[in-house]
Write a structure and sequence with these properties.
Blueprint (H helix, E strand, L loop, with lengths): L5 E4 L6 E4 L1 H9 L10 H11 L6 H14 L1
Antiparallel strand pairs: 1-2
Helix pairs in contact: 2-3
The structure holds zinc ion.
């Protein structure tokens, strides 16, 4: 099985991002064959939102960044 870099459009913010062969291989090695639907930034923000309002600096910064994208 070979892996190639792939350009994907983020389902959340519409940004084109590259799903690299390395990431593809890494996920496949974990049994995850689905391609990501969101760019790394949106994925990160989502993950941190789900973790709840822990009030950490990074989750605050990511939320601020995300809300900025939607305005
Ligand atoms: Zn995005």
């Amino acid at each position: 099985m070979s892996f190639q870099d792939k350009s994907i459009q983020c389902a959340d913010c519409g940004t084109n991002f590259t799903f690299t062969a390395g990431e593809n291989k890494f996920l496949a090695s974990k049994g995850l064959t689905n391609e990501p639907r969101r760019c790394p930034q949106c994925r990160k923000a989502k993950k941190q939102q789900r973790r709840g309002l822990c009030g950490s600096w990074t989750s605050y910064a990511n939320r601020a960044m995300l809300s900025g994208e939607y305005q």
